[in-house]
Amino acid sequence: MAKRILVIEDEPHVQAVIRKRLETKGYEVVTAIDGREGLRQCRSARPDLIILDLILPGMDGFQLCALLKRDDTLRETPILMLTARTQERDIERGIALGADAYMTKPFKPAALLKRIAELLDKPKE
């Protein structure tokens, strides 16, 4: 059964690139364009992994990450923050809020796919 990945990204072209790469590798992809829709999709689609942008309309990625990690049914779902925010304090904040990995844009598709595979293979705690 294909692993389901939720991509929460407000830039359509970035979302499309990620979707194409993931689908080519056999993943099922669900998308959302803002934080609130992302939260709804997390609860309904039950993804195996979440790729989360930080700069989103409505609710930013930091807020969404904190909400997800406090939710009993979603806290174990790995979150990969994928963002243009490269400041050390942003990386530290993302990890402190519970993100399992942090990658910056622009990204190399092969590096993204490798990190996704690592997160999906990581045993649950």
Chart the SSEs and their pairings.
Layout: E1 4-8, H1 12-24, E2 28-32, H2 35-45, E3 49-52, H3 61-70, E4 79-83, H4 88-96, E5 101-104, H5 109-121
Parallel strand pairs: 1-2, 1-3, 3-4, 4-5
What does this structure look like?
It is a single chain. The protein has helices spanning 12-24, 35-45, 61-70, 88-96, 109-121; strands spanning 4-8, 28-32, 49-52, 79-83, 101-104. By secondary structure, it is of the alpha/beta class. The chain has a single domain, classed as Rossmann fold, CATH 3.40.50.2300. A 5-stranded parallel β-sheet has the order 2-1-3-4-5, sandwiched between helices. α2 runs parallel beside α3 (61-70). The two termini are 22 Å apart. The model has no long low-confidence stretch (mean pLDDT 94).
Question: How many domains make up the coordinates?
Answer: 1
Strand order of the largest sheet: 2-1-3-4-5
- What sort of overall outline do the alpha carbons produce when their principal axes are compared? globular
CATH level 3 topology: Rossmann fold
- Write down the CATH class: Alpha Beta
For the CA atoms, what is the radius of gyration? Answer: 13 Å
Could you give the count of β-strands?
Answer: 5
CATH architecture annotation name = 3-Layer(aba) Sandwich
Number of helices: 5
Instruction: Bin the helical content.
Output: 40-55%
Give me the CATH superfamily. Response regulator
Taking the sheet with the most strands, its summary is: 5 strands, parallel
Order of helices and strands: EHEHEHEHEH
Task: Report the structural category.
Answer: alpha/beta
Mean pLDDT: 94
Q: Low-confidence segments, ≥5 residues, pLDDT <50?
A: none
Could you tell me how far the N terminus lies from the C terminus, measured between alpha carbons in angstroms? 22 Å
Strand-residue proportion:
15-25%
